[in-house]
Specification:
The protein is 27% helix and 34% strand. It is of the alpha+beta class. The protein folds into 2 domains: 205 residues, 2-Layer Sandwich (BirA Bifunctional Protein, domain 2); 43 residues, SH3 type barrels (Roll), CATH 2.30.30.100. The strands form 2 sheets. It has an 8-stranded mixed beta sheet, sandwiched between helices. It has a 5-stranded antiparallel beta sheet with strand order 12-11-10-9-13, with no helix packed on it. Strand 9 and strand 10 form a beta hairpin. The longest helix has 22 residues.
């Protein structure tokens, strides 16, 4: 099925009624056409996925399923910060529109005050074959899955226990074009700030809106399962975890399990 094409703030936007995955389509399009800015939106996905290929439930048309293709100029050692930058951008966009103060859960979720998931994020770096790009230029696909108009009855029984939506939290149905435009504006703003000024100010925003700091977790470090408490976010974007013996370790990747 061919997409409907429109432009939002001079960005080309491809809108599909149904697609396997907006991220997958975006990655394939980048591989074929090169590092251009564009957006992919779908009403429904048949094979949506999140971090570690986890399924993102999207059987109806009440969510926002969106991928933003954005070339960035950043040192490869800082690329992992991109997920934290995106989380801040989406949190701020939703707050601007609704005054809903969602919380950021490491590394890529946005939750309500009650701990229910409202959005999931996934960033993928596209490697172009035979590329002559600047070594610091990376083509990022910023995947956003946002529950927008869902009511509790729209979720499966199991998902309803852990998920929420903007409508459930606010009682307001947002204009879709305004929502997409506000998200895009915030993504552009925070990714430009990151590239020009570094991570410092964005780190402050992430800490302010985080629900992860102070939480007890289980994680793997040096192939060993360990437990500790998240005490801080480092200046370069790693979690600082305090172990029971008082020592601290940095965690920057891999799965962590939040203890109940």
């Amino acid at each position: 099925m061919e997409p409907t094409i429109r432009y939002i703030n001079d960005w080309k936007c491809l809108h599909f009624e149904c697609i396997d995955s907006t991220n997958l389509y975006a990655k394939n399009a980048v591989s074929e056409s090169g590092p251009n800015n564009f957006i992919v939106i779908a009403d429904r996905q048949t094979n949506g996925y999140g971090r570690n290929q986890k399924n993102w439930e999207s059987s109806n048309t009440k969510g926002l399923l969106m991928s933003i293709v954005m070339p960035v100029f950043i040192d490869i050692t800082q690329l992992a910060q991109s997920t934290l930058v995106l989380a801040v951008a989406i949190q701020r966009a939703i707050y601007q529109l609704t005054k809903l103060n969602l919380k950021i859960k490491w590394p890529n979720d946005l939750h309500s005050d009650k701990g229910k998931k409202c959005a999931g994020l996934l960033i993928e770096n596209v490697i172009l074959k035979n590329s002559e790009l600047n070594p610091k230029q990376h083509i990022l696909v910023l995947g956003i899955g946002l529950n927008v108009e869902h009511e509790l009855t729209d979720f499966s029984q199991e998902i309803a226990k852990i998920a929420t939506s903007l409508f459930i939290e606010t009682g307001v149905k947002l204009d879709r074009t305004l929502l997409v435009t506000t998200i895009l504006e915030n993504v552009i703003f925070y990714f430009q700030q990151w590239q020009k000024q570094g991570f410092s100010e964005i780190r402050k925003d992430w800490i302010e809106h985080s629900c992860s700091i102070g939480k007890e977790i289980i994680f793997f470090n040096d192939n060993k399962q360990q437990e500790g408490t998240i005490s801080a976010l480092s200046p370069t974007g790693e979690l600082i975890v305090r172990l029971s013996n008082g020592e601290t370790v940095s965690v920057d990747s891999g799965e962590i399990l939040f203890k109940l």
